[in-house]
Design brief:
It catalyses: (S)-methylmalonyl-CoA + H(+) = propanoyl-CoA + CO2; (2R)-ethylmalonyl-CoA + H(+) = butanoyl-CoA + CO2; (2S)-ethylmalonyl-CoA + H(+) = butanoyl-CoA + CO2. Its EC number is 4.1.1.94. This is Ethylmalonyl-CoA decarboxylase. This protein has 15 helices and 9 strands. The protein is of the alpha/beta class. The chain has 2 domains: 222 residues, 2-enoyl-CoA Hydratase, Chain A, domain 1, CATH 3.90.226.10; 44 residues, no CATH class. The protein has a 6-stranded mixed sheet, with helices on both faces. Strands 5-7-8 form a 3-stranded mixed sheet. The longest helix has 19 residues. The N terminus is likely disordered. The structure holds ligand LP2KCY5N.
Length: 338
Amino acid sequence: MCEFLPVKSIINILCPVSPRPRCCRMVLCAVRRQLLSSSSSSSGGAWARLLHRHSSGCVHTNVHDFNQDEIREKLQAFPGGSVDLLKQESGVAVLTVNNPSRMNAFSGSMMVDLEERVSQLESWTDGKGLIVQGAAGTFCSGSDLNAVRAISNPQDGMKMCMFMQNALTRLLRLPLISVALVEGRALGGGAELTTACDFRLMASDSVIQFVHKHMGLVPGWGGAARLVRTVGSQNALKLLGGARKVDAELGLQIGLADAVLEVPRAEEGAGTQLQQAEDWLSRYTKGPAPVIRAVKKVVLSGRELPLSEALRTEKDVFGTVWGGPANLHALASKSKHR
Ligand SMILES: CC[C@@H](C(=O)O)C(=O)SCCNC(=O)CCNC(=O)[C@H](O)C(C)(C)COP(=O)(O)OP(=O)(O)OC[C@H]1O[C@@H](n2cnc3c(N)ncnc32)[C@H](O)[C@@H]1OP(=O)(O)O
């Protein structure tokens, strides 16, 4: 199994129809069990276990099981903007939400773009880090309200929600250390996007705000679940219940922001905020890609899996780096210190 071809993707290839007929679901459950057991000895098994845990819902005729292709087609009907990806030699990629005339709001086609960029990053085996930013000095103002108005029926709204929830879950699970570079405003789904990164760097004059309550909504892209895990349930309740504006100071205080970037002043020669973000991230991505990716994998499984599965995953991932080039090189250099 390809290192990052999640079990669910294989299942979708085998049976792309939705809802899946019961007989098909029974067969697919057997296939899923076989895939999980056959790849359990490699780190692929760890990934299969991790992803299975989150896709197992569809084993129980998950009501949210839907045909990705169907919603992808619907979303394409709402064009505008783009999600751009720059993969750099350094192993750090930059993902840019690019729709400045709409404060980088996600049009439907941009949601499809995002999922395609995540797929590209899942296949990027040299990657170590990722910076997610918005164009033109602001982060993202959530869903494009014009698109939201057009797909406001519950079925399509739910499908859009699941499409973005899946895309952001896969984004957070990338074996890359990711940071959201928050300049200007991150609102609604834009605030949720910040939580789909491992870290958040806020410009001193930026704001993160979960405005959903003002829309008569709650987060749907997974932002609530991730927010609780980031800042705790009490703070999450305050941010969601009060649609509270989180500035850089409050962000640091509650742990939503991991650092504050100074607004670059040309005369002081301070680099752009993207350069500052790359400098900040470099302390965690310095080193061989296999080791950096292994670090993210063991932390991710520790965060998402029950202890016994997390320990098994850790053992599997350890096995991929023990005796590897970086380990042997380190041992050789240490032997000189006798
Ligand atoms: C799961 C959550 C998800 C969902 O439910 O689908 C959502 O995210 S719902 C959307 C949540 N986001 C918002 O409610 C933010 C809406 N925008 C604003 O509050 C303001 O635009 C702003 C972001 C605070 C910026 O205000 P301001 O500086 O005054 O600029 P403008 O308001 O004039 O905006 C400039 C320009 O951009 C358009 N714009 C901004 N945000 C969106 C958006 N989310 N969708 C569509 N268009 C947006 C705005 O209409 C202006 O365009 P023009 O009127 O053509 O100049």
